[in-house]
What does this fold into?
Amino acid sequence: MKKIVFFVLLLIVFAALALFFYQFFWVKHEKGALQVTASPQSKVYLGGEYLGTTPLCRCPRSDSVDMQNAQEMLPVGEYTVRLVPESGSFPEFQEKIRIEKSVLTVVDRKFAQGASSEGVVISLTNIRNERENELTIVSLPDKADVYLDQALKGQTPLKLTNLTPSDHTLTLQKAGYKEKSVRIRVTNGYKLSAKGYLGIDPSFIAEATTASSSATPTPSISVAKVRILQTGTGFLRVRDDNSLAGKEITRVTPGEEYTLLSEEEGWFEIELTDGKNGWISAQYAEKVE
It folds into this structure.
């Protein structure tokens, strides 16, 4: 009996050691690429660490055949990327991304005043079936028309599967917002995720303002908002993710109103007064016109 117990304990020790060596000597050395562009030129921070200014590419060296040998690349893992414009009075931008092994994650941002800023985040992740592919598209705001190579595919959020593996043009359109187009490459064995930030079209606002005095009704942009409800504590926590495990980044007060960016089950993503985004529990907030 003692021999059996000793043997089981020995197996547990070996398994723990194997996991340790895998995590710290193998996974730690897996790397992926990151490309960041912004206008105007911006400082780039990843996980709180300063990487440099845009345009920035932590990519494989041109003379490197094996992507894993590129010292410029970044360790695999989840990060928060933060862009701080070097000119203009624009609020900084931040987004949670994941660096995947041997693939490129792309972040692009065009800063502008108010809700006119736009951008896109593109990432790749492996899927089990190497003969299939996926394309998921989300947008802020949602319900944008999705065109792939000029063919309407539906509205965001949208998931497409088994597309022709090649280069495609992805376009997002929504009334009152600037059209967003980006070139993507669909590859078998991967899911490509595209998140588009649509900027308000100034010409649309000007047209709506000019025509407001006429008898004919003119469409206008309705920005969704949420009002913070009473919580019993006098404040509501704002988190960096849509879960209770998300890190608290600030607090808001009952009665205050914020622009609603997106929704997940039980959560609202809001734009804070400093331009940052955060998540609040939908239980303590209500939509307002």
In short: The chain has two domains: 23-202, 225-288. DSSP finds two helices and 23 strands in the chain. Confidence is low (pLDDT under 50) at residues 20-27, 63-71.
